[in-house]
Records
---
Amino acid sequence: MTKNERIKELKELRKLANDNLNQYKVLGFDKNKSWISNKTKISIQELKEIIKKINYDLHPDQVEHYCTLHSKNNSNLATADDLVELFNVVMSQARFDTMIFDIARLSPSSNILMDISWLPDGNVGDYFSIYLQKKDISILEKYLPRKIVELEDRIIPQLRLSDEFEDIVVILETAIDSSNKENFIASSLLLITASESLVRVMAQRIYKIQNPNISSQDVQHHIYSKYHSLESLIIKGNWLSDYPIKFSEALVFYKDVNADSLNLLREKYSKHIVAKNNIERKLKKLDENTTDQNILLKYLTELKTLSGNLMTENDKEIKINLAVMLDFLVRKYKDDRNQIIHGNFKNYNLKWKNYINFAAVVKIFDVFTEYNKFYKSSDLCS
């Protein structure tokens, strides 16, 4: 790759990111909805970070270094050390194929109108094509059979272990039957009901574990009476931030969630990257033959100051709560749910929409299963 080619692809990425950023400034969606406002703030911050990274990689020294290593590799002149350095440079610098995916994901049409990044099925190619509007979102309907099988073979048998889930199992089985008959609106209505019931039954167990001194009656009041909407229960339910997760996983799995713990993590990570880049630049500028104590002391002081923003072992794990893990339920999913409940069936008797509702049930179950493992308790599903 020549320097001009590298500069050209980086500038193309920067233009796409800036175009998305400008679209958010004139966003025509309902910004009064808190989830849209929250997601917009995160997306704008992510796009700014992407642009900052691209600008860093556009520095002549970075372009020169990147292209020199690529040239050596392509001409078979690279040593073992060169190959290691090339790998590190490629992994640390902006890569067109991965960065364009993130930029496309962060476009308002993909990020707000669709809000599908939480879905567990599909491959990068599927989502990339959807984000770039090369394929319709309806291609996701091909994953519906898989989700039904997962529900029948993995989840329903576990729910049968407790009488508390008996009615939910009946609803899920009826939803499956309706879907198999291609009555997708009836199936989705049933799945919406099952999802909310599943959240409340399992959340009741979580809340009791987190508040062992509260009576069962008070726990039930908290879950079923205090919060009439599922959204308020999830957002305002006073959930403890006690579930540990690696910071790298948090940045990937909950990239769309606006929560204090995650926002602090994003801020720390951003400062870490800036500090890391500045340290690398200063080390490159330092002549290894320098013996002047004043110069060395100056560099050492500057490096020590910069290193204060580097993430440490203590930052490798954070703790999140149930509101973070179920955040997908209070975004586009909630808006679609409200439309169906209010009788707007026209746009929802669709196979791919039915898939999303099945996927939500599976994700809900898996969230509580993970909490179950964390607490090392059999209370949730037995």
---
Amino acid sequence: MNGSLPEAARAAGAGRGSGPLLLGVRHHGPGSARAVRAALEAASPRTVLIEGPQEADALIALAAEEGMQPPVALLAHVVDEPGRSAFWPLAEFSPEWVAIRWALEHGVPARFIDLPATHTLAWGQEEAPDASGAQNRPDASATPDGPDASGTPDGPEAPETSAPDTSQTSGSGASEEAIRIDPLAVLAETAGYDDPERWWEDVIEHRGVRGSDAFGPFEVLGEAMGALREAYGSGGHERDLVREAYMRLQVRAAQREFGDDVAVVCGAWHVPALRHKTAVAADKALLKGLPKAKVDMTWVPWTHRRLARASGYGAGIDSPGWYGHLFSVPDRPIERWMTKVAGLLRGEDRIVSSAHVIEAVRLADTLAAMRGRPLPGLTESTDAVRAVMCEGSDVPLALVHDRLIVGDVLGEVPESAPAVPLQRDLARIQRRLRLKPEALERELELDLRKENDAGRSRLLHRLRLLGIEWGAPTESRGSTGTFRETWRLRWEPELAVRVAEAGVWGTTVLAAATAKAEADAVAAGVLADVTTLAERCLLAELPDALPVVMRILADRAALDADVGHLAQALPALVRSLRYGDVRGTGTQALAEVAAGLTERVFVGLPPACAALDADAAEEMRRHVDAVHGGVGLLGEVRTEASSAAAGQDPRPETDGTGIRTRWHTVLRTLSAREAIPGVIRGRAVRLLLDDGELVEGEAARLMGLVLSPGTAPGDAAAWIEGFVGGGSGGGMLLVHDERLLGLVDAWLTGVPGDAFTDVLPLLRRTFSAYEPGVRGTLGELVRRGPGTRERAAATGSAIPGFATDLDTDRADAVLPMLRLLLGLDENDADADDATGNDAVGNSANNSDANNSDANDNDLAGVGR
């Protein structure tokens, strides 16, 4: 290792007699990675220089630790502004990662030689938007110079990461644009290929390394890049010039220390610039006066999905899972790949046998031969899988693409890696709760009655407060209880930046979430934001933040005179009262604020609903619905609390009945005032009907009044929209109560022609929200006409809003199942049939039977 590089190696390495060994690579290329390893083994340099931010030198040793599993990324962020950050991702098949590992295994010093991140991040703020924007977005600035290679998200990656600015290049416009987008595309087109990826696979990935030809790939690629840069220059991209000047200075420093026994692993686009002889003074002049920012740097986990363009990150490769396979398998890559695919499909209950694998391999080889390729590539393999294993369908093939071609591999970093205190506390909690971050999206069902699940819920809610969207709540399946929660989890690499950003609020998750909640409460713009925040504080169990939020909530509620704001804030406030049951959180202060807020809504709602235009009326209707739901929930809470404290506070206003009664009074007021828009009046009548507060036939009477000739058609249509519109079950109400449907039908057929055009949009919006089956049933009822409706002549109704007569056939149909469930024998069944017949035929006899045989008559009652 201490001697000079072999002369043969020098001659083959870059076509020169002396100087450092320049290994130009394609980032995230498995062929380049294998070639780098072979070249380093053949050359045995005394030091390895790698393209990357110089501040990461101290982190290189961590790559040798057992806990470091690629894909990983170097993360640099500004200390005072963590959102300004950049990633340098490295996969197992990245040439830079291979060079780092080789240096650590052979005890050779390894250094990063690219422009320090202290300049890169500061420079990004001052550049034009096209450069700075990419650098400062965590999802776009994932490479040393922003987006990796190409300007188009679906194009292949260039050998180098930077994209020249065509406005200052020489040569033809078409060629300049091609180079700016993708230099590989120019080389592929020159070689007669229409697909740059296919050209790269044939030239590099399928080539292999043979004996003494370890430096051949770098010689060829270096010559190609030299020709391109000679023809088109640097593209006038200032960052390229500065970065290359800094790298030349670092290479010279390494040569002074180690002589010419230096290997440089960098993007092939830079090789001609690093080989070019320039004056030291000229390079230093380019670096003079660069802006600076204080930055921190660490390793963070990365994913294959973030390496793929399909996920929005321009890393330069469409198929990281495929590339990882090519790099890791020792031989027969196609056979092993088809075996992986078969295993995946069989795991999804697809019928795939070993015969399918054999036929797929044969077809891939045949396709490669027909297309003139040395070996089957991803295209041939995918075509073979589609034809043989997926039977021509793209549906299972999409699963193969998602799970294998792209993949959900998530890297790991050792605990010794630098991290902000908040990150360390989060990692400790994750281990304690056995909640491991995973790249694959999954659903997590939580039972809040269990201590570990409750802890997981607290953690996820606290992270959401901090803007760390690791999990998103979703609807629980099979249970609607408040003790159930369902989360959809997926860990994205950008969350490491969010954790760093949240570190300004505290050193632990609890402290940071508390401080963030208090700050959000102070900065909240409207009352609804404060009530939502109070709900989130209860979910996250932040006892220190809740008093501050409640004080601000009480102050805002007392000062806010806008009934819309109060109505909008009430539902979240009332929902929060439910969390004390499962989570053991005290909600007395919250209950007092909710009670005061409810009374103010009751008093202010009728005047606030008067004299509104159509848009304001629709918004107020939504507020009425929200208050109705909140009052119902508040009534349940109060009833439960009153039952728990029976005998201590007998006042009726303390239970749920009193507050619901007052709300029904408000709804009656809204339904009767002519100054209130029809959509609100109709909605108030519907809510009263749903709560059983209208006497028999009252809903039909009110609708008949509204739909009378004396009411303007527009107002009547708005009333109908409020009464049966939207997804509130109004369609089923019309299906089951044909009196109401008849009123609507009669009114609609009597609307004058000149007014019909005005009411048509309202009616279309009302009925288009119904499900297709409901619309079809209504159409059939209208087609039959009012004269033949079986129940249209009925004048009474056992239950308001439904049919008037008992359907004995439907009632009797459930009796056999009820007998089976109750375990009744045949004798009981006969007695039940007799009792049921008596109940249908004569109500007085039914009453006598109730006194004589409780079990059978109970069953008959259920049947009715």
---
Amino acid sequence: MGYTFDFGAVFDRSPELFWGSLGTLGLAVAGMILALAIGILGVAARTSKNKLVRAPVITFVEIVRNTPFLVQIFFIYFALPLMGIRLNPTATAIIALGINGGAYAIEIIRGGVESVSKGQVEAGFALGLHKADVFRLIVLKPALRAIYPSLTSQFVMLTLTTSVCTSIAAYELTSAAQRIESDTFRSFEVYFSVTAIYLVISSLMMGIFALISRYYFNYPTR
């Protein structure tokens, strides 16, 4: 084959990969928090009886879910400045990730909310609970338990999607890898290492989500 593998160049630049990994985790966690907030608020609006409240959420979900994430992040970073809204690459990446993840979270959480029986909701009102308390305690928490595996899988996908943010020069693992590859010309070694790091990050996040599930949702259903 004539190619000599040399991971030494990657090991020499490992601090950059480490900080790039932290950048990826930072973008992912911030994007998840924003996505979850959008998801919960969006579901509250999506399940409203008022068409004027539901329609914008439905439109938002359809637009985001049916357009590429790359186009969305380019729109925020390159098009919004024409309207006087300028954001740095990190802020743009977090907002784009939050919007993209939020659109999927709305539909996932809505499925969980609709799985809660009306009898439980009526029982909550009969006990004198406020509408917000009924939604938070009787509807939202059981719904999150029901859709937790789907929601966390979506969040892991969102973490991997951070690699697209290198297209606007946001600092994360893939952007660090590109700089190392351009300096060393060791494409196989660099991207093999980056693949392994992404696998570790994904496994770590799935482990953390499993611990959260065991702690927060470990209660009897009957």
